[in-house]
Amino acid sequence: MSVSASAENLSTADTQSCDGGSMCLELALEGERLCKAGDCRAGVAFFQAAIQAGTDDLRTLSAIYSQLGNAYFYLGDYNKAMQYHKHDLTLARTMEDKLGEAKASGNLGNTLKVMGKFTEAIQCCQRHLEISRTLGDKLSEGRALYNLGNVYHAQGKHLGRAGQSDPGHFPQEVRDCLLQAVTYYEENLELMRSVGDRQAAGRACGNLGNTCYLLGDFAKAIWYHKERLRIAQEVGDRAAERRANSNLGNSHIFLGQFENAAQHYKRTLALAEELGDAAVEAQACYSLGNTYTLLREYRVAEEYHARHLAAARALNDRVGEGRACWSLGNAHAALGNHEKALYYAKEHYNISKELGDVLGMATAQMNIGDLCKVLGLPADNGISPPSPRAAPPPRTPFNALRVRRQSMEQLSLIQITPEAKKKEAERSEAAESRGVARASSEDTEHPAEVFMELIAKSQAQRMDEQRATLDKENRPRPLPRSSSATSNSKSEAMTEMMNMISSLQSKRMDSQRAELRPVQESTGASLPGLRSQQTRSTKPEDDFLDMIARVQGSRIEDQRSELPRPKPKESTVPDDDFFAQLMKAQSGRLDDQRATIPLQDRQNKAATASSSKK
User: Fold this and answer.
1) How far is CA 407 from CA 118, 314, 411, 413, 414, in A?
2) What is the pLDDT of residue 450?
3) What's the pLDDT score for residue 227?
4) Burial class (CB in 10 A: 0-12, 13-18, 19+), 46
5) Where is the composition biased (Basic and acidic residues) (predicted)?
């Protein structure tokens, strides 16, 4: 439900909450406008301001929760998206709004899917489907079926990545998830055709094609992708048309239909140029280069790989650069340009070394060795194994993690703080003035001792701030120093001092006491932005524990530092699973194209020439 759809609900609000409710609605409407314009970050700020303003209209608040969840989902903050979709679900159940509960369950299921919580996501989407069928809402039912298919498809891909299996050769657990996804997609397709929703039917066809591709049924995948292409052309969806052509090219590759694949990749390239998508344009060039390599048209393949390399450098995609150099080396080797092939092989090695790609380094070293033999160069020309002192070992994921863990274990954070440095300097100066010569093992204080000293110092400052200042009239009288003083007088003086301290501290503690308020009866009042409809004098806003949590939570949040999110780089290389399969398909042909080193022929010619001279 959109915020604008709930504006009419404020007409029934009471006079007391009219001003606050209208302010909340105006802020929410501006947030919705900004989100639709694409500025979700500014829209979130307005939605949060609307919640601060508060409203007692539950439908308006439900719409704000839903929009906030969607905005945070778009921004990639899935934890907050889940939080607000849960608020929306709670509010819908409180109002007994079944349609709102169905929508909130669907949104929550999509968020949980992205977070990798597939079991909980399936439960939410199943609840969405059950409510939609109970209400007889076909569009809502179609969305629930589509969401369920997406969850099972994502779960299957997630499980399939662990085994590195080929399409059609996944374990049974993965196949079960993919087959379940096919079932829900087919139900969604049939339902969307019955209601006449062409775009939704096209999306279902595209997802069915992708799922059949993973199952190894490439012929069926081509049928669904062609249907997707036809619908995209009918409705004028150029982006969907581009995706359909790319998927058709991938499917034709695995059936050995390279000419058809090249035609679809060329169409993908033209649409990417039309849409201004540089990353997809580079991917299309990469796919075309590999396809023409399979067709043994190496000159055309070299042109497309050169375009891919230029695009990867423009987008700062080092992985794409490495793949392009590897492909260009193979193309030039097949064309007989061994010097250029050696250059690109060395570039591939350097980039793989930079990225910590051990497999890429091994492949590049093998190619460099073969090319050096063909050119009559030393086997280690340009490449020598790195010495332990010259360079660190390749940064594999495990090795990088191990190096980082060792460095963190050896780092003494306490010893580099300003207080510790000052204290160390003072100790060294005192030792020099006294002329004390200590062994090097005694110069450094144990980190644990420094740590305890810092804690004692910081805690002492806090305790000094809490000490009570003795007033003149409350100062204890000095104890008698006469030798004839008895233990009785000492005990009386001690009692008098303790009473004085107790009176002083009790005043301070009384000023810090919090009033214990009665617990709020309404469960919905704990939701942010929901104002109580009772007067403030008769019903408090929150109970004692909620008040403490709110106050302390705000103090903690003020001290948090948000980690800057790295901007995701656009990859110029298609998915790794497609790349791996394409390389397997190429491997047999590349072996046939390897040049035989003519060492024996050279020796025979030299022997013939020497005998003829004699």
Assistant:
1) 36, 35, 6, 12, 15
2) 61
3) 96
4) buried
5) 419-432, 462-476, 507-518, 555-572
Decide if 316 contacts 566 (C-beta within 8 A): no
The helix or strand, by DSSP H or E, that contains position 27, with its residue range, turns out to be helix 18-36
**pLDDT, position 387:** 35
Q: Residue with structure tokens 């591709």?
A: 213
Alpha carbon distance 292, 270 (integer Å):
17
CA–CA gap between residue 191 and residue 145 (Å, rounded)? 9
Q: How far apart are CA 453 and CA 411, in angstroms?
A: 19
The half-sphere exposure of 285 on its side-chain side, counting CA atoms within 13 A, is: 27
C-alpha distances in Å from residue 143, one per residue of 94, 129, 185, 188: 24, 8, 10, 8
Distance of CA 102 to the CA centre of its chain: 27
Question: Could you tell me which residues are beta bridge partners of residue 530?
Answer: 55
Distance (Å, rounded) from C-alpha 238 to C-alpha 273? 11
Q: How far apart are the first and last CA of the chain?
A: 99
Q: Show the tokens assigned to 538.
A: 């008769």
Gap between the Cα atoms of 293 and 296, Å rounded:
5
d(Cα 329, Cα 13) in Å, to the nearest integer? Answer: 73
Which tokens in the block code for residue 112? 């949980």
**Cα–Cα distance between 156 and 140 in angstroms, integer?**
24
Query: 398: which 2 tokens?
Result: 């495990």
Alpha-carbon distance of 445 to 453, in angstroms, equals 11
Q: Give the model's pLDDT for residue 104.
A: 94
The predicted pLDDT at position 604 comes to: 58
Low-confidence ranges of the chain (pLDDT < 70): 1-21, 162-165, 379-491, 504, 506-526, 529-570, 575-614
Give SS3 for 55: strand
Residue 582 contacts by C-beta under 8 Å, 6 or more apart in sequence? Answer: 253, 290
Q: What residue spans of 76-137 are helical by DSSP H?
A: 78-95, 98-114, 118-135
pLDDT at residue 46, as a whole number? 92
- Please give the C-alpha separations between residue 235 and each of 143, 194, 208, 350, in angstroms, as whole numbers: 20, 18, 19, 47
User: What ranges in 136-255 are assigned the alpha helix state H?
Assistant: 138-163, 172-195, 198-214, 218-235, 238-254
Residue count of the chain: 614
DSSP 96: T
Q: What is the reported pLDDT for 587?
A: 55
Burial class (CB in 10 A: 0-12, 13-18, 19+), 590: middle
* 367's tokens: 């190619």
Which helix (H) or strand (E) segment holds residue 551: the answer is: helix 544-559
Reduce the secondary structure of 320-371 to three states and give it as a string.
Answer: HHHHHHHHHHHHHHHHCCHHHHHHHHHHHHHHHHHHCCHHHHHHHHHHHHHH
Measure CA 499 to chain center.
61
Q: In the numeric block, which tokens belong to residue 233?
A: 């052309």
Report pTM.
Answer: 0.65
By CB atoms closer than 10 A (0-12, 13-18, 19+), residue 137 is middle
Amino acid at 436: V
